[in-house]
Design a protein that fits this description.
Elements: H1 2-57, H2 66-79, H3 99-127, H4 132-139, H5 142-160, H6 164-172, H7 174-191, H8 199-230, H9 234-237, H10 240-263, H11 266-272, H12 289-299
Helix pairs in contact: 1-2, 1-10, 2-3, 2-10, 3-5, 3-7, 3-8, 5-6, 6-8, 7-8, 8-10
Length: about 300
């Protein structure tokens, strides 16, 4: 009799725990859907304004790096390929038969790729300015552009073939590289005597540090969730997949402001917007006594 009471009590406790977990999971999914739509409604117009501003700033010799434009385009790609927010996101799995999910992950991988390209470009500008001309010629070649867009397909193929461990390892490789770019650029800015610390160099150093922080805070949880699931730590991954996807949704909100202010100042950005441009004052053309007298003298 006591054993049956104990079994009944245990079953009721387990049912209550399961119900509470389901209710918590459902609430989390609802909050995630709200955040998803908010980031879509704010982020997409922000990216459009950023592309328009960069286009206006890219005139003459004052060219904006194409990698920044490519990164904003990859943000748009990830916007229109976002997977539906549901309880299946609690695991870090990216294997799905839905093609829009692969479009989203392609945009995420492209984001990481162009972040690495931009950080490397800023690092050369700060630490090795004498090599900037050679690096610019290499970076602007069509081969480098094709490789930059083809590399995400190769990385995504690992996930399609269920090599999730190597997929996560490759996505983690930018972490030490970005950290090296940030530390070495800061060293060059502080210790270099031949190259004074100009405003552009300071802005580049802060930009590289911001790129590393952006990658660490917004992308690393997603990569870790895939790595932990590949290592069969599914209990640790609970809720991490959903949280990591929400962090990925925040990335397009950060990118427009981060990469614009890294390349240009606030005054230059405001001048590029039509609402902030100063209209030339129209001269007052009303005839005065002096102008009429001068006109009469010239006619005579």
């Amino acid at each position: 009799m006591a054993d049956s009471i104990t079994v009944t009590t245990t079953v009721s406790v387990l049912n209550n725990v399961t119900a509470n977990l389901n209710a918590t999971s459902s609430t989390t999914v609802h909050v995630a859907k709200v955040i998803n739509w908010l980031t879509f409604a704010i982020g997409l117009p922000a990216i459009g304004v950023a592309i328009y501003t960069l286009k206006n700033l890219s005139k003459g010799e004052n060219k904006v790096p194409m990698n920044v434009m490519f990164l904003l385009i990859s943000d748009i790609i990830s916007f229109f390929g976002r997977p539906g927010v549901n309880q299946q996101m609690e695991s870090g799995a990216i294997s799905s038969s839905n093609p829009t999910d692969f479009i989203f992950y392609f945009g995420v991988i492209s984001n990481i790729t162009f972040m690495l390209f931009i950080a490397q470009e800023r690092h050369v500008l700060v630490a090795y300015p004498q090599c900037l001309g050679c690096c610019d010629r290499i970076r602007r070649s069509p081969v480098v552009t094709v490789v930059a867009w083809a590399a995400p397909f190769g990385v995504l193929a690992l996930a399609v073939l269920h090599y999730n461990f190597w997929f996560a390892v490759i996505l983690l490789t930018p972490f030490p590289l970005l950290l090296f770019f940030a530390v070495d650029s800061w060293r060059a800015l502080i210790c270099s005597r031949s190259n004074p610390p100009t405003l552009e160099r300071r802005r580049s150093v802060w930009g590289i540090g911001a790129i590393w922080a952006n990658y660490t805070l917004l992308y690393t949880p997603f990569i870790l969730s895939i790595l932990l699931e590949a290592l069969s730590f599914k209990e640790v991954v609970q809720y991490l997949g959903l949280v990591s996807h929400l962090l990925l949704y925040l990335s397009p909100l950060v990118d427009p402001f981060l990469y614009i202010f890294m390349t240009k100042g606030i005054k230059e950005l405001l001048r590029a917007l039509p609402c902030c441009q100063k209209t030339p004052r129209t001269q007052d053309m009303r005839p005065t006594v002096d102008t009429v007298a001068e006109t009469v003298e010239t006619r005579l």
